[in-house]
Structure to design on (183 residues):
């Protein structure tokens, strides 16, 4: 029994589960950190993926915006490589070469750098000693086959070889019927 005049200690319901509130805050903070960490990793990848897709669709006006998203935390070898391809498609061959050099400095592999250089030389019409390498690459060009066909056909046209360019267009149309570029 309590003595008269002495107050009984009371516990408030809000004070009792103080450790539970702290746990919720901790878990909420950890969850927010996890979401930010995932976003940091996914946002640039999304930008690069979308830029690559837009290049394939030849929607060049939208590519720079997606490359900016892809490089939000700094330029990578891949964003520089895609900048080089965009410049090449827009016939800014000097800009393409500069972006390609930046891609190499950012860690682009020697093989990828060589392929991009080949595309750039072919696009510019500098085909001397290049055609055997182009024919070899055409045997297994993979996802870059349309890029190779376009650059090579343009180079052939620059060198006043329209019949050879038409033969490349025929192969390109046959192998990539959904690609609107050679039609």
């Amino acid at each position: 029994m309590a003595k008269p005049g002495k107050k009984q200690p009371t516990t408030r319901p809000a004070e009792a589960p103080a450790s539970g509130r702290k746990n919720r805050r901790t878990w909420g903070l950890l969850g927010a950190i996890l979401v930010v960490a995932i976003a940091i990793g996914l946002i640039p990848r999304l930008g690069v993926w979308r830029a690559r897709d837009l290049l394939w669709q030849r929607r060049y006006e939208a590519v720079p915006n997606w490359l900016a998203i892809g490089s939000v935390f700094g330029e990578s070898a891949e964003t520089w490589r895609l900048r080089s391809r965009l410049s090449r498609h827009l016939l800014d061959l000097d800009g393409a070469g500069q972006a390609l050099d930046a891609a190499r400095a950012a860690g682009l592999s020697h093989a990828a750098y060589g392929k991009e250089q080949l595309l750039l030389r072919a696009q510019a019409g500098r085909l001397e000693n290049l055609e055997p390498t182009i024919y070899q690459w055409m045997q297994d060009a993979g996802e870059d086959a349309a890029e190779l066909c376009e650059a090579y056909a343009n180079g052939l046209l620059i060198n006043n070889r329209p019949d050879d360019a038409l033969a490349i267009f025929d192969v390109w149309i046959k192998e990539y019927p959904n690609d609107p570029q050679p039609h």
